[in-house]
């Protein structure tokens, strides 16, 4: 599928340049999500990720959905990403479509958003999982592949991996 402005929007020339750090999300992605079960084994799920510029190119909205083993929808939500150039901070929120609640993903108390080469990292207080905090790391490998890694913690100091999402696109 060829990417077009009609399908995905485009970055506004007047938007903060930092917004382009998440431009790799702009596309339609097929994903394989691996989640560590309580017994320590990895379970594989199908998922989809769809990223678009919204609000005349001043923000990014990316929708994530994950399906259970029998095809039922088990995760459905959307991230909204903007950059506040005056404060030099990210505003990233997750809207959980199944529960109807919001989560702040770029908490300054937990270090905000960090950029390290081809990786973007942030941590947040976990509202639904069996652990207290999640640290998310996005690593771009190419125009058609990125990885999302989730690590968990109960003290925001020691982290252990619990989820890996490999996203691929034909664009």
Account of the protein in words:
This protein is mainly β. It has one domain: Calycin beta-barrel core domain (Lipocalin). It is built from one helix and eleven strands. The longest helix has 4 residues. The N and C termini lie close together (6 Å). The model has no long low-confidence stretch (mean pLDDT 93).
Summarize the structure.
The chain has one helix at 5-8; strands at residues 27-36, 42-54, 59-67, 73-84, 89-96, 101-104, 114-116, 119-125, 133-142, 145-153, 160-168. The chain has 171 residues and is an all-beta fold. It has an 11-stranded antiparallel β-sheet with strand order 6-5-4-3-2-1-11-10-9-8-7, with no helix packed on it.
Which CATH-level-2 architecture? Beta Barrel
CATH homologous superfamily label: Calycin beta-barrel core domain
Estimated radius of gyration: 16 Å
Order of helices and strands: HEEEEEEEEEEE
Tell me the name of the CATH class. Mainly Beta
The percent range for strand residues is over 45%
Record field, number of beta strands: 11
Helix content: under 10%
Low-confidence stretches: none
CATH topology: Lipocalin
Largest sheet at a glance? 11 strands, antiparallel
Q: Please tally the helical runs, counting DSSP H or I stretches of 4 or more residues.
A: 1
């Amino acid at each position: 599928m060829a990417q077009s402005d009609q399908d995905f929007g485009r970055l506004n020339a007047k938007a903060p340049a930092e917004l382009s750090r998440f431009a790799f999300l702009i596309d339609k992605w097929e994903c394989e999500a691996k989640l560590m079960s309580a017994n320590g084994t990895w379970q594989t799920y199908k998922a989809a990720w769809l990223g678009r510029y919204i609000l005349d190119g001043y923000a990014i909205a990316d929708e994530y959905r994950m399906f259970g083993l029998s095809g039922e929808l088990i995760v459905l939500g959307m991230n909204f990403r903007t950059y506040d150039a005056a404060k030099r901070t990210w505003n990233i929120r997750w809207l959980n479509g199944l529960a109807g609640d919001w989560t702040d993903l770029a908490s300054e108390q937990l270090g905000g958003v960090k950029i390290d080469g081809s990786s973007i990292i942030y941590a947040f207080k976990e509202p639904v999982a069996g652990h207290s905090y999640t640290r998310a790391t996005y690593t771009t490998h190419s125009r058609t592949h990125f990885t999302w890694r989730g690590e968990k913690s109960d003290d925001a100091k020691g982290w252990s991996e619990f989820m890996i999402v490999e996203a691929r696109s034909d664009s």
